[in-house]
Write a structure and sequence with these properties.
Blueprint (H helix, E strand, L loop, with lengths): L6 E7 L5 E12 L3 H4 L13 E14 L2 E21 L9 E22 L6 E2 L2 E2 L1 E17 L14 E10 L4 E10 L3 E2 L7 E2 L2 E12 L4 E8 L9 E2 L9 E2 L5 E8 L4
Antiparallel strand pairs: 1-2, 2-3, 3-4, 4-5, 5-8, 6-7, 8-9, 9-10, 10-13, 11-12, 13-14, 14-17, 15-16
């Protein structure tokens, strides 16, 4: 396996150095891993091609006042993408093992956006220090599809939600206390098999994290609550599982606590 991987990019600084505009095009080449060419379903090795692609991206990032942003649109045109198929090693087996093959042509395109904003005012002041209140949002929209394939042309690639969002509100007090309520949201359903016959639902979960920095001790403590509404959902899947065991269950409502201490020299 060998390849030439050119890359070209453009970068433009916005006035007053508040941000940047950028664009790039690059070639990607990825030979199969040893575990991908080593078949667990029979003797010998799988004859796999390396996957290669052209990747294009345009976007902008920067900061203006209390606003931060990082937004980009991407398009990845792949040839011979290596895809995973989970098959039963023998008829009636209660488990599956992975095998791999090349998809002739696939496409991954979409939008990624990260936004953050901090309010300019303050509620409390402590010896010149003020508290802070802001919000952060990370959103991805993606379309991933088989463009040309002997079995799945025109189908969606499985296991990837089209929309995915994470957001949190961040409150920090000058005493070292901070609170971060958060939400994770994957709206709509998406397929878990390349034939696009089986779909899974999206989900919404709520959480919160509390941190307290103990300056005099060079230490900090935290408590984090996840899945506060005790949602029953599957955050990850095993795609194309021939035994039908696609879904990995999420943890229910849970609380984590921790303590960090760093001794001084």
């Amino acid at each position: 396996y060998d390849a030439l991987q050119p890359k070209v990019g453009l970068l433009y600084e916005l006035p007053s150095q508040s941000g940047q505009l950028f664009a790039n095009a690059s070639h990607m080449y990825e030979p199969p891993l040893l575990l991908e060419v080593n078949s667990l379903t029979g003797p010998g090795f799988i004859d796999l091609e390396a996957q290669d692609a052209w990747q294009f991206e345009v976007g902008t990032r920067g900061r203006h006042g209390g606003l931060q942003w990082d937004v980009s649109a991407f398009d990845v045109e792949l040839d011979n993408e290596i895809i995973n198929i989970n098959v039963q090693p023998f008829p009636g087996a209660p488990f599956t093992v992975p095998t791999y093959r090349n998809a002739t042509e696939t496409r991954h395109y979409g939008l990624e956006a990260g936004l953050g904003y901090e309010l300019p005012g303050a509620l409390f002041l402590n010896e010149g220090l003020r508290d802070r209140l802001g919000a952060r949002i990370a959103y991805t929209w993606g379309r991933f599809e088989y463009v040309d394939d002997p079995n799945y042309s025109g189908n969606d690639l499985p296991g990837i939600p089209e929309h995915y969002l994470q957001a949190e509100i961040v409150y920090s007090h000058p005493s070292g206390f901070s609170l971060k309520p958060n939400v994770e949201w994957a709206p709509g359903s998406y397929f878990v098999d390349s034939a696009n016959e089986i779909a899974k639902d999206g989900w919404t979960t709520l959480g919160a994290r509390l941190d307290w920095v103990l300056d005099g001790w060079n230490a900090s403590v935290f408590a984090e609550a996840r899945n506060l509404t005790d949602e029953h959902y599957s955050p990850a899947v095993a795609v194309d599982d021939s035994s039908g065991r696609f879904f990995y269950p999420a943890d229910g409502r849970s609380i984590y606590v921790g303590f960090r201490w760093q001794p001084t020299n």
